[in-house]
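Data deposition worksheet. Section B asks for the primary sequence of the deposited chain exactly as it was used as input, without tags or linkers unless they were present during the calculation. Section C holds the resulting structure in C-alpha cell form. Section D is free text for depositor observations; keep each observation to a single sentence. Incomplete worksheets are returned to the depositor.
Section A, Depositor: J.P.
Section B:
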Amino acid sequence: MPVAQIQTVGERHQTAWRWRPEKSLLTGDASLVATWTALVLLIYLRPVSDSDIFWQLRLGELIVSRGGLVDREPFSQLHLGEPLSHVAWGGQVIMASVRGLFGWSGLKLFDALCWTGGFAAVGLACRRLGAPAPSIAFAWLAGMVAALPMAMLRPQSLAALCFGLLLALRMLPLRTGPKITLGCLLLAIWQNLHPSVAVAAIAMGAAAATGWLVFWRDRTRAAPLAETAFALFAAASVLLTPDGLAIFATSAKNAELAVMVGVSEWLPAIAPLNRLVAVPVLLITALAARLLWPRRRALDLTSLAIAAALLLMTVAAYRFVLFYAIALVPPLAATRLFAEQPAAGPEAATQPRDKRAVALAGIACAIVAALAVALFPPSFSNHIPFKAMEKLRETGASGTIFADSAQGGALIDTGYPEWRVAMDGRFYRYSRAEWKDMMAIRAGRLGLAYVEQRYRPSALVLWRARQAPLIAEISRKPGHWRQIWSDAGFVVFAREQDREQQGDHRKHDRVAQDADVAQVHVAARDAGKARKRQQPARDHP
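Section C:
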C-alpha cells in the first residue's frame, strides 16, 4: 500500500501528517499501550528524592482542612505569621488529597501517570493525525532518555501533563473558537497547579511567530490564530493566581537564590554540575537532528520552533528539559523512521482484531501495573531521615528542630504542629543572608554557638553529608547536648536539660509517691494505737 506524503505545515489545521490511514497490527496501537505502561512503571519505581514534596503535601492538607488558602507562614520558626506565597497551591491540594485517599503508593502512581501523561497526550494527538505507532513509541522513549533525571514526585508533573495537553490541542483539527476557549481554560488551571505557564507563553510565542512567517510567505496557509491566542493568554495567566503581581518577585527571588545555592536544575545544562545529565540531552538532540534533516521540507515548522525554543531554555536552565522532551514528540513522530506495515486482507477484516488487541493490551498492562504497585511500595532516597525523625518523636521533643534545609520538608510533614523548622527548601521564604548562613554552617564557618543563638533549637537532626563540621564540634564538646540516635546518614541530638528536667519530674514523682506511702503508714499506725486503747475497755467493762 503506497503511503501519501506528509502535508506541509499551514494547510487547514496545520497538522503534520495527512497520509492514507493504515490499520494497526498487534504492533500498532497495542504497542503504544504497552510502551506507555512501561514508562509509567519506570517513573513509579524511582525513589522519592525531592524533599520539598513533604512540606507541599502538609501545606495542601492544611488548605483542605481549613477550607481555604493558608495566608500566614505556619512552619518556619523565624518567619511564623509572615505573609505566605501561594505557589503551586492547586497542585499541593490535589497531591495531598491523593495521598490522603490512597497513601504513598497511590500518590506515586498518580504522579507517574501525570508525568508521562504529557508525552501520552501529544503522542495520541500525533496518532490521531496519522503518525505511525512505532514512531510515536520511539519518540516517547527518546524523550524519556533525555528527561528521566527530572522525574521527581512534585507538582511539576501536573505542569508536564498540561503542556502535553496544550500541544495536543494545538495540533488537533478543531474549530478555532472552541480550541482557543479550551486552551485558555487549560492555561489558567496550569498556572495554579504549578507556576510554570511562562513555558507555554514562550513555546506558543515561537509557534505563533513561525506560523505568521509561513502565512506571510504563502497566504493559502492557515493563520496561526490559536497559537497567537495561546501565547498572549499564557503571558496573562502568569498573574492568574492569588498572588497576582507578587508572583514575579517570588519567582525572581526563587531563581536567584537557587542559582546562588547551586541547585543543579536551575543552572545551565552545560554547567559542571549538569554535565553528566546533559549528555543524554545532547545525544537525543543530535539524533533528532539527524533524523529530521532529510525530511526538513515536509516537517511542521511550528513544532520545530517549539522544540527549538525549549532547547534554548534547557541550555539556559536544565529544569526545562522535561518540557523540551515532550516538545520533541511531534517532530520525531513525523519522521516515519519506524513505519507500520499495512495489514493483510480486506480493510474491514482487520478492524475488530485491532480493537481486541488494544483492549487485551490495556487489560494486561493494568494487571501488570496493579501487581507492581502491590509488590513494590514506594522507596525514598537516603537523605530523607525517617528513622531519625521516628526516634526524635519518641522523646516527645517539640519546638524548633534544626536540620539542613534538605530535611526541612520532611520534618514539617512529620512533626507539624509540634515541630517548627529552622529552614526548608523554599528559596523564596528565606533571605539571601539566611541561605549564606546555612552554607556557612555546612562549611564549618559557623558553629554550634551561632545555631543556638539564632534558632534556639530543642533538637538537632544533622546530616553527615553536609553538616559533618557541626557534628564533630558537638562530639568534642557536647555541652548540654546529648546524642539520642545515630546511623550512617544522620545524628540526632537533644538538649541535656530536657533529660535533666525529665529526671526532676521523675524525682518529684518518687518523692510524692514516698509521701503517699508514709501517710498510709502513719494512718495505719494511728489506727493500731486506737485499737489498743479501746481493747482493755472491752475486756473490763
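Section D:
The mean pLDDT is 84.
The first strand starts at residue 399 and ends at 403.
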